[in-house]
Amino acid sequence: MKIKNWYSDKKPWIITGPCSAETEDQLLDTVTQLVDNGFDTIRAGVWKPRTRPNSFEGVGEIAFPWIKKAKEKFPHIQFAIEVASAEHVELALKNDIDILWVGARTTVNPFNVQEIADAVRGVEDKPILIKNPINPDLALWMGALERFDAVGIKKLGAIHRGFSTYQESIYRNIPLWQIPIELKSNFPDLLLINDPSHIAGKRELLFEIAQKAMDLQYDGLIIESHRSPNEAWSDAAQQLTPKALKEMLDSIKIREKSFPNKDFKNELEGIRDQIDETDKELLEVLSRRLELVKKIGQYKKEKNVAIFQLDRWNKIIENRPVWAKKLHLDADFIKSIYQDIHDESIRIQTEIYNEE
Ligand SMILES: O=C(O)C(=O)C[C@]1(C(=O)O)C=C[C@@H](O)C=C1
Hints:
- One of its GO terms (molecular function) is chorismate mutase activity.
- It comes from Marivirga arenosa.
- InterPro entries: Aldolase_TIM (IPR013785), Chorismate_II_sf (IPR036263), Class-I_DAHP_synthase (IPR052899), CM_dom_sf (IPR036979), CM_II_prokaryot (IPR002701), DAHP1/KDSA (IPR006218).
- By secondary structure, this protein is α/β, with parallel strands linked by helices.
- It has two domains: 13-250, Alpha-Beta Barrel (TIM Barrel); 262-354, Chorismate Mutase Domain, subunit A.
- It has helices at residues 24-36, 63-73, 86-94, 104-107, 110-119, 138-150, 178-186, 196-200, 206-215, 242-250, 262-302, 310-326, 331-354; strands spanning 13-17, 41-43, 78-83, 99-102, 128-131, 156-160, 191-194, 220-224.
- Bound molecules: prephenic acid.
- Prephenic acid (PRE) is lined by residues 293, 296-297, 308-309, 312-313, 316, 342, 345-346.
């Protein structure tokens, strides 16, 4: 499948607005402030999938006349809402919503995704954005995109909103940046948007996440904004006023997507050659280590000694990070590499032990 790039604007695409449409006044006032601050693509939740049944689940259809009023007041703006069923799609299209997105709780379920894809079949002019599934499963995310591609959607995009976790984390949803990076390697032309609000869960982290997304060449950001964030009916801690949002975005550095000149390209290629050489050395050293693991494995097998050696492993995992620190390497990074290496040693030795 070849998903095409349809977004040609050089600037990052900013989609912003309240987590939820709450009242006509709240929506119109927030949109007016957003337009005053230069924003033109507005998001607003109409239906909200919530974890617990007694949370605010969105105002529903009554939001459509409010959205219509906002668009009459500011004819240049576009509206994006979340859809989670064929019925939502039908209502959104009937009410001239410009952009649809599929939420993280929907992307996990191929039945729901297919139902929505069938409902938008033939819709050529509207962008459809697919949030990552709540669980870190790249195949599910790709599968959802493929379903929309298969029904002929031309303006497809992906939204990276982070992943649910049991691990303790500073994030509401851990970003796991390697997953959207892998998505981009599979679909290089896919429009990729970052959702700092749902990754962060709190205002203080928004800047750092948005900047990282720009450094990783995302095409845009979807960020929640509310006229009075602390009074928001949902996601109060992660929303910003339109003015604060503009200030934050003004302080973000937007990186060049392409190489500015030949000297720069030469310099980059020179360093990349050195990285290639260093990687060859790294792999040679790794291969030497794994040969020793095979040797010790053969020996332990002959002497009928167990593969896993707790004392030795404890020593390794204790002192490698200490050695690493002396070389100014991050201790946690090195620890996780050694955990992977040890897993591989066990795998190799298990193979040896299973040989006749
Ligand atoms: O020291 C050993 O006994 C090994 O087999 C080597 C090794 C390693 O990878 O360093 C692998 C498995 C053991 O649990 C401990 C260490």
